[in-house]
Amino acid sequence: MNDSQLNYRTMTGVTSGFLNTSEAKAVWGGNTKATKKFAEVTGTVSKIDALAVLQATSASGSTNKKLDKWEEAANQSEHVCNGVLAYASDIKDTILWGQVNFTITDFKRGDVDECITIMQLVHDKAAALDIASLKEFNVVAADITTLKTNINDLRLAAPGYRILQSSKKTVTGQLKLEFITLRKQMKELDEIIVTFNKANPNFVSSYKTARKIINLGS
Predict the structure, then answer these.
(1) pTM metric for this prediction
(2) pLDDT value, residue 66
(3) Which of 15, 31, 45, 206 counts the most CB atoms within 10 A of its CB?
(4) pLDDT tens figures, 128-143
(5) For the chain, which residues make up each domain, given as ranges?
């Protein structure tokens, strides 16, 4: 959930907690329209909570293993790339320098396939050079071999990563739709609750207080 959704979900929880108190239920519990609408709200909240768990799993569960492979490949790519850049500058090879002018951000962000492509480019350029010429720039043969292994590991992990990312996008889209439903249901519940104002103004006032959205990020 994003911050706005989390704030709204928290408000809904506070409101539900108030409505479930014995004092509040004594006011609205016997009203068919109110109980039906509250049941709808509760059902939607349950769906949202279930989707939030799926979203969290996609983002921080199985994906972590894939991100570890990405992190390893990115860090090794940066090390080899820095050595090749330094070498290219030293011999004034502007073409080679331009071909491998990447930073750690290039290796870590964006589409995983694009990152793999530039990692492979760095590996290939380094592997094509005399390893002795890179030694003074702290890149040895083992570094290039390790980079090749890291890239292969990431390439193997990438399909699973893409599936999880796709799953996360699907869940995020479903969450958005459920929150649209929840907001509509809460507005309809508001319209029912305010009808109790004449006979139970304190109840309605307390409901409105519970209904206030607090920005938890502030």
Answers:
(1) 0.54
(2) 60
(3) 15
(4) 999 999 999 999 999 9
(5) 3-61+166-210, 68-161
